[in-house]
Amino acid sequence: MGGSATNSGINYQQRIASLALIAQFTDFDLSQIFGINDELLIESVHFETDDPIDDLKILCKTKTIFLQIKRSLSFQIGKNSDLFKTIKQFLVQFSLDGGKNSYYVLATSPQSSRVISQELLKIIESVRLNDTNFIINPLNKSEKDTFTKYKSMFKTIFSEINGKPSSDADFINFTKKIYISIIDIEQGRADERVAIILLKSQQLVDANLIWKMMIANSLEYARNRQSINKKGLDEILSRYKNQEKETIPNNNAELEELFKTEVIQEGNFPVAKEILLVELQELDTNYLIMELYRFTDDGKIKHKFKGNKILLHGTDETWTILSRAATFSGIERYIKENEEKLTKEKITIIPANGIETAEETVAAELHRKYLINLQEQNHDLLKCLHCDKALNPNNSIIVEIDDLDTRPALGAVHPKCVRVLDRVLGTTKTPEDNRGEYLKEFDYKEWARLMMKGQGMMNQLRESNSLNEKNKMILWNGDNKEFRDYSYCLKFNLSDGSSRHMLDRGRIHRFSKLDAIDIKNDFEENIKKSKSNDNPIGYTSTNFVYGNYNQLLELKSPEESIIEIETVEVARYSKLLEKIHEHINFYAPICIVRDREDESIFNIGNLIPMISDPLVFLSIVETWNNLDIEFDLDSLELKIIKSDLEFDSYMREFFSCEMVPIIDPLFNKKRELVKGIRVANMHSLTKSETDTRTTKQEFTIAENPKWKKGDKVRVEFPNITDDNYPVGILLEDEVILEDERFVIFCPIENGKELKELTYSIPSKFLVKRE
C-alpha cells in the first residue's frame, strides 16, 4: 500500500491537526469530538513529537491529549499490524506517565473497519463506564471474539514492555485511558463544516481558504516537528481578519480584557458610589441625578434596592429610579439613548460632598475583591446574565447586580435586558461589527458544539446525495418515545456476525415485553418475505442507513457494502448499550427565524422557514424578496433549536396552528417555492385534507396501477431512522398527481384501521405486506 492511500492518510492527519488549531484559536472545547468527559481548552499543539504516541500532542489547561491518527484501520492483531503498533505506543506511554492527567486517543475516520469503530469502541467504553462488571454486558459472538483478541494483544504487549505478565487491574486501568474517536473531517463532511463555522465566526476574509491554509501549515509543522501556541496562531491569522471594519472580540479571554479596560479604572472597579436618575413628583423638577455614598462608616452597604425603587438609608423614604450606574458617564449614556423623552425635561444634579476619596476606603477595597470573585463565578461571559442568550461583545452592558430581588452577579447583559436596578459599570462597545444584525448575537460555539452530534437527518440527506432534490419531504412522527422506560428492545443479528438494535432517532427503541415479541414476529415475517423477493432488509456498512436492498443500493456510498438482517431477537435493554449508541440529534440543531424585539416567529403566510445553516441564511432570505411581503432583515434573529425534544415541541405548536415548516426555502421570481425540505406530520394528514388537496389539482387514475385498493402495505422512508415504520391498507387505487404516483394510505394499529389518520403518500415508499 502506498501512493494515494498514504497521501490520504497524511491529509486526514493534518485535517485533524487543523481542527485542533482552529479550536485553539477560537477557544472551542474539543472534548465532545474526542468523547472525553473533561473540558479541553487548548494551550498549544505539538506535531510529530518524541513521545511514544507521536502524531499529535495537545496541551490543555489541566490535561494532555496524545493522538495517534489512522484514517483507515482494520482489526488485525499481528505484530506488524497498525493496530498492534498503536496499542504498543499507548502502552509505552502508559508505562511512562501512568495515564496521570493524560488521555490516549485513537483518531480514525468512518473508513475504518466496523470492528474498530463499533465493537472495540463499545468494549473500551464499557470498561470505562463499569470497570468491575463490564464483562457481563451483552456481547454478540463477533464482539466476544474482538474482546478476546484485544485482551490477548494487550497481554502480549504488556509482557514485552514490562518483562512480567499483566494483571486484570493493569488491563482495566490501561483501557480506561483509551478513547477511540471517529472524526469525519474529510472534504464536505460534518466535522469539516464545524471547523469552517468556527472560522467564519471570527470574521476572517475567507474561511474556506484559511481552512485550506491551516491544513497546509499543519503539514509543514509536522515535517519540522514544530509546536504552536495561541499567541503564535493569533499572529498568523490576525492579518486575515476583515480590515474594512475592525472585528469584534468573540471569546472569553478578549471579553475579560474588556472588563479590565472598560470597567476597571486605573486597576479598580468603581464601587464606592451610586449615581441614580430618579423621577420626582413633588419637587420643582422632573428628574434628579443623585450622587450617593454607597457604604456606611463600618463598611456596610447603605441603601436597599427592590423593584424599581431605592430605600434610602436610615429613612422610610423610597424613590422611583429610571437608571442606576457606577459613574456619571453611565447616566449620561442613558440620557442620550432616551434623548427624545428627557431633553425637554428639567433635570437637577445633586453631587455628594467629599466623595472623591471614597474609592480609597477599606470598604471599597473589600468590595472590589468581592466583585472580582463574582466575576470568576461567571463561567460564561458570552451569555446574558438575564436571558441567558448569546451576547454581542461589541454592544453589551457590564453590570453589577445587588438588589433584594436577585442573587448577586457580575457580568454582561443585552442593552434591551438592562433592568432599572442593574448597576451599570460600563459597555463592551468596540469598533463596528460588520456582520448582519441577525448574526451579531448568534452563538457560533454552541452551534458548532451541537453540530458535532446533530443534524442526523440532514447528514443522511447529504450522504444519500438527495439534499438537492426538488420537492423533498420528511415525515415527522410526534409519538415521542424519549422517556419510555421499558426493559426490552429488539436486536438484529446481521450477516457479518455483528448486531444492531432497533433505534428511534438514534436511541435504542424500548418496549414492554409483549410489544417487543409482537414487533419481533412482524419483523421476522418481513425478513422472510423480503428474502423470498430477492430484496432483503439490512443496513449500509458505515452509515447504517436502514432499508431494503434495492433502496440501499441507491443510498449507500461507493465504499459501503450492504449487511443483511438474518434474525431478530428480543433482548434486555441496558443503559450501557445506550452509551455505545450515543444519541445524535436527528433534527437539531436547526434555527427558526424570529423578530428580535418581540420574539414572535417569522412566517410567510402559513409557511414557517427553518434554517439548517446560519452562515447561508442571507443567500436564502434574499430569495424571499421575490414575494409580496415586507420584512426588515435587521429586525430578525436566528434562534437555535438545540435538541429533538425542543424540535418536537415546536412541531406540535406549528401543526396545531396548521402551519407548514419548510427547511431552507428558496423562491423564484414567480413566487414559487423551488427548493426546500417540507416537514410533514405523519399523523395529521387526514382523508378530508387529502380530498381537498386533490380536488384543487389535476390527477388521473394510473393505468395498470401497481398498487390497488385493499392492498396491505408497509411504509418505508429511506431518510427516517425510526425502524418501526407504519403498516396499513390502501383505500383507493394508485393515482397520478403532478407526474408522481400517490396512494391513499390508512394506518393499522392493533388490527384496527385508523381512518381518521389517513394520508396520501408517494407510491415509491411502499412495500407489500400480506
Quantity of strands, as a count? 36
Secondary structure tally, helices: 22
Distance between the termini: 51 Å
The average pLDDT is 81
Largest sheet: 8 strands, antiparallel
Sheet/helix structural class: alpha+beta
Sequence stretches where pLDDT stays below 50 over 5 or more residues: 243-252, 258-267, 685-699
Provide the helix percentage. 25-40%
Radius of gyration: 31 Å
Strand content: 15-25%
Describe the structure.
The protein is an alpha+beta fold and 770 residues long. The protein is 32% helix and 24% strand. The chain is built from 22 helices and 36 strands. The strands form 7 sheets. Strands 29, 30, 31, 32, 33, 34, 35 and 36 form an 8-stranded antiparallel β-sheet that branches. The protein has a 6-stranded mixed β-sheet with strand order 5-4-3-2-1-6, with helices on both faces. A 6-stranded mixed β-sheet has the order 9-10-11-7-8-12. Helix 1 packs parallel to helix 7 (190-200), helix 1 (4-26) packs across helix 8 (207-223) and helix 7 runs antiparallel to helix 15 (444-452). The longest helix has 23 residues, at 4-26.
Task: Itemize the secondary structure elements and their pairings.
Elements: H1 4-26, H2 31-34, E1 42-47, E2 56-60, E3 64-70, H3 82-97, E4 102-108, H4 114-129, H5 141-162, H6 168-175, E5 178-182, H7 190-200, H8 207-223, E6 227-229, H9 230-237, H10 252-263, E7 273-279, E8 287-293, E9 304-306, E10 309-311, E11 318-325, H11 328-337, H12 339-342, E12 347-350, H13 362-377, E13 397-401, E14 409-413, E15 423-427, H14 437-440, H15 444-452, H16 456-463, E16 472-476, E17 488-494, E18 499-501, E19 503-504, E20 507-508, H17 513-532, E21 537-540, E22 546-548, H18 549-555, E23 562-572, H19 575-580, E24 590-595, E25 607-611, H20 617-621, E26 636-641, H21 644-656, E27 660-667, E28 673-681, H22 687-695, E29 699-701, E30 712-715, E31 727-730, E32 735-737, E33 740-749, E34 752-753, E35 759-762, E36 766-768
Parallel strand pairs: 3-4, 4-5, 8-12, 16-28, 25-27
Antiparallel strand pairs: 1-2, 1-6, 2-3, 7-8, 7-11, 9-10, 10-11, 13-14, 13-15, 17-18, 17-23, 19-20, 21-22, 21-23, 24-25, 24-26, 27-28, 29-32, 30-31, 30-36, 31-33, 32-33, 33-34, 33-35
Helix pairs in contact: 1-7, 1-8, 3-5, 4-5, 7-8, 7-15
